[in-house]
Specification:
The complex is a heterodimer of chains A (about 270) and B (about 475). Chain A is of the alpha+beta class and about 270 residues long. In chain A, about 45% of the residues are buried. Helix content of chain A is about 20%, strand content about 45%. In chain A, the strands form three sheets. In chain A, strands 1, 2, 3, 4, 5 and 12 form a six-stranded antiparallel β-sheet that branches. In chain A, helix 1 crosses helix 5 (about 165-180), helix 2 (about 120-125) packs antiparallel against helix 3 and helix 3 (about 125-140) crosses helix 5. The radius of gyration of chain A is 19 Å and the shape is globular. Chain B is α+β, with helices and mostly antiparallel strands. Chain B folds into three domains: about 1-195 and about 315-340 and about 405-470, no CATH class; about 195-305, Rossmann fold; about 340-405, Dna Ligase, domain 1 (2-Layer Sandwich). Chain B is about 30% helix and about 20% strand. Chain B is built from 14 helices and 23 strands. Chain B has helices at about 20-30, 30-50, 75-100, 105-110, 115-120, 165-180, 180-185, 195-205, 230-240, 295-300, 320, 325-330, 350-355, 385-395; strands spanning about 55, 65, 70-75, 140-150, 155-160, 215-220, 240-245, 250, 255-260, 265, 270, 305, 340, 345, 360-365, 375, 400-405, 410-415, 420-425, 430, 435-440, 445, 460-470. In chain B, helix 3 (about 75-100) packs across helix 12 (about 325-330). The chains are: A alpha+beta (about 270), B alpha+beta (about 475). At the A-B interface, strand 1, strand 3, strand 4 and strand 12 of A face helix 5 and helix 10 of B.
């Protein structure tokens, strides 16, 4: 599938800032499922490209003059392949590193208790079946609702409230998998068509012996399809976040995001 | 003399050990009043120099003097030769291990170390994966803590591969001793240590990006409230480099610059005395005001050296420590010169059962703890303290290691009652860049309280000058 993306993030400040510095993980990389073409990133005065430890393409963006308005625009085209959610076997990162909980994926007694019910599924039916079960049960247990959580909510907190958005579902999924020692990590990206609004999205990938990384999108109850574009991976939202920033001065920030994702099936 | 402990100055039968021959003679012929006078004078010298140490959680102001003892710790050339070769070997292995952990992970694939011990360790930093740094050196400055239990046996108690401190005491203690006892230095051939700042500067320069031969080097401190701030200022001054805080640096198009009165100046090497977590708020703790936004990008682009490297904590993790003999054999194909303290790995069921049973006799440490915090010295603890620690260990065994309580050697020390033996350890500082070197000496720490085995300055320990005698 050929997917065209235009993603604009617009910060408006009531009181101007003197400086803004950001890491932008907004550039998809080529892998066996996606080819990236004509990808541009514009907006900030200065952009320096580097690669982080997870292999993500990151830009260090610097706005060094007074500003009350800052736009970050990425656009380009990605050609995707349908692989039923399965990714290449080896991307150089040892799967074993993805069983470590972070502040955002840490569990709680209640969440551990919920996770315990999947033990027999893992033992009897294997990882793949276990992962599907977790995805389905999670969607039953937690309601998709925007505005009920923030990007600093941990899996444990979201599980208390039983309401969350895509990154919360990803964190919950990862936490449950970690409880059973199944390597799992966070993916940020875009989704077009199918379930939900075409928009910025987040889901999870779990490592299945003999198969490699397999993606699970518990917010949409499916494995990633050719409608998905991967932007960045990490332990959690914090390590894969599309935009992390610090600012000197400035007040009253308002952020608006518009994402246009157009797809056309390949002939 | 304390019973059953090896004493640095005297044999069990009271005979003076060879390295102390000359010194013992001098000590016995010197009046106590004279020693009291020297002790007071030493106190004055240190107050004037301003060596202080901030103690966390201590009452009565944060700054205080570390007790300095006027009786030197003396080590023969022969003994030093073992220590020197041992610590250099150890640091070479640590660096090879760190490079491997962040690249091919051969040691994990070999099965020698359980992969999860490294990969799920909090000290393992994904930010370092696949990054190549000059000479593959991660721990440029390492402090290896050594204790002695008999005339032949030195144990490595722990490795410090992050930001070991204490070297300023090694240098200042020597200066003070030379002023107090010039006649003793005339009678002994004590190996000099004063060239340490020069060697440190050479080491830092040797890891500058792209072999730059005229690099700009800075020392980055968290600021004056840090417990080792005095040392940061001291070393920067001795090396003739700028002492900077995060706010003095900025990143521009992948390079690091320092703000100066003459405009921005490119920085090539950062000798940082600040933890990984506070280096770059965009990559690590977002609430950190101490760091430099963008620093990780410049580092991963190979445009700046950070010493010690990010992620070195995985090498001085106490759970990894138990594997150090294997690590040395794996990378260097050599037998370890210095021994590890026999250590119970509480991840193992048998070890855990033993430790829980015998906690009164053991020293139990938190895997990630340092500075003498979060540890239990069984024989010196109350029943209640032992019980509390037992509960902690039971709750999370893999977070702890246990070791037998070692018979740390004693060294004569000036105390209220005169000269009496007190337990000591030794921290030599190993420098790794193009070469791996160590100045002949180190920091001897002494537990000032009778019978105490905790030498950490944060726990009221003192220091001594360490003399390596030249042959």
């Amino acid at each position: 599938m050929r997917i065209q993306i235009r993603h604009e993030t617009h910060f408006v400040l009531e009181k101007a800032a003197r400086r803004a510095l950001q890491y932008l993980r907004l550039t998809p990389r080529n892998d066996s499922n996606q080819r990236v073409g004509n990808w541009t990133i514009t907006g900030p005065e200065q952009l320096t490209r580097w690669i982080d430890g997870f292999g993500n393409i990151v830009y260090f963006a610097a706005e060094n003059t007074d500003h009350d308005d800052l736009k970050i625009i990425v656009e380009g085209e990605v050609e995707t392949k349908e692989t039923n959610g399965v990714l290449p076997l080896d991307d150089g990162l040892p799967p074993g590193m993805f069983v470590r909980p972070t502040a955002l994926t840490k569990s709680s007694k209640e969440l551990d208790k919920f996770a315990d019910q999947f033990a027999s599924s893992l033992q009897k039916e294997g990882e793949l079946s276990f992962l599907h079960t977790v995805m389905n049960e999670l969607a039953q247990e937690v309601e998709y609702a925007s505005g009920e959580s923030t990007v600093t909510c941990s899996a444990a907190e979201v599980f208390d409230h039983k309401k969350g958005v895509c990154q919360d579902f990803a964190h919950l999924f990862i936490a449950i998998c970690h409880h059973h020692n199944v390597p799992s990590r966070y993916v940020s990206g875009y989704i077009t068509g199918g379930a939900g609004e075409p928009a910025s999205h987040a889901w999870a990938e779990s490592y299945v012996q003999g198969l490699g990384w397999v993606s699970f999108d518990p917010a949409n109850l499916q494995c990633a399809t050719e409608s998905y574009v991967r932007l960045a991976i990490g332990y959690d939202y914090a390590t894969a976040a599309p935009i992390v920033g610090v600012r000197t001065g400035g007040q009253g920030e308002k952020m608006s995001v518009t994402v246009q994702v157009l797809s056309q099936s390949q002939s | 003399m304390l019973e059953n402990f090896f004493d640095e100055m005297h044999e069990q039968n009271g005979e003076v050990r060879e390295p102390y021959n000359t010194y013992a003679g001098w000590l016995h012929s010197t009046e106590l009043e004279e020693l009291v006078r020297c002790h007071e004078q030493a106190d004055l010298i240190f107050r004037r120099v301003g060596i202080t140490f901030n103690v966390y959680g201590a009452d009565g102001g944060v700054e205080r003097l570390i007790p300095f003892d006027i009786v030197p710790r003396i080590i023969s050339a022969k003994e030093w030769d073992i220590i020197e070769r041992g610590v250099i070997q150890r640091v070479k292995a640590l660096n090879a291990f760190l490079h491997d952990v962040y690249h091919d992970q051969a040691i994990l694939k070999s099965g020698l170390i359980p992969p999860d011990l490294v990969l799920t360790n909090e000290a393992f930093r994904p930010e370092m994966l696949g990054l190549n740094i000059p000479h593959n050196v991660y721990s440029h400055i390492s402090g290896i803590d050594i204790v002695r239990v008999d005339s032949e046996t030195f144990y490595v108690l722990e490795d410090n591969a992050r930001t070991p401190s204490g070297v300023s005491y090694m240098l200042e203690n020597r200066q003070a001793m030379m002023r107090l006892f010039p006649d003793l230095f005339a009678k002994h051939r004590v190996a000099p240590v004063s060239h340490y700042p020069e060697l440190l500067l050479q080491t830092l320069a040797s890891v500058a990006p792209r072999g730059n031969s005229m690099p700009t080097i800075v020392l980055m401190t968290p600021g004056q409230y840090n417990s080792a701030y005095f040392e940061h200022a001291f070393l920067a001054q001795e090396m003739g480099i700028e002492l900077v805080e995060g706010q003095d640096l900025f990143v521009d198009e992948g390079y690091v610059y320092m703000r100066t009165t003459r405009g921005p100046q490119r920085v090539d090497v950062i000798y940082r005395r600040i933890d990984d977590d506070f280096l770059d708020p965009l990559a690590f703790r977002p609430d950190s005001a101490l760091g430099v936004p963008g620093l990780l990008s410049a580092y991963r682009m190979g445009n700046v050296a950070i010493c010690n490297a990010i992620g070195g904590g995985i090498a001085d993790d106490k759970a990894i420590y138990t594997y150090m003999p294997d690590i040395i054999k794996f990378y260097l194909s050599q037998e370890p010169i210095l021994k590890n303290v026999p250590t119970y790995n509480l991840r193992r069921k048998d070890d855990l059962a033993y430790a829980l049973e015998n906690m009164e006799q053991l020293v139990v440490k938190e895997v990630h703890g340092s500075g003498g915090y979060g540890m239990l010295v069984g024989p010196a603890s109350t029943k209640k303290q032992v019980a509390e620690f037992r509960a902690k260990v039971k709750a999370d065994p893999s977070n702890f290691i246990a070791q037998p309580t070692l018979c740390l050697s004693t060294c004569p020390t000036f105390v209220d009652s005169g000269i009496a033996p007190r337990h000591v350890d030794l921290r030599p500082f190993v420098l790794s860049g193009r070469e791996t070197r160590v100045v002949p000496g180190g920091l001897t720490r002494v537990a000032m309280e009778k019978g105490s085995l905790v030498v950490n300055s944060s726990q009221g320990g003192g220091t001594k000058d360490t003399w390596i005698l030249e042959s």
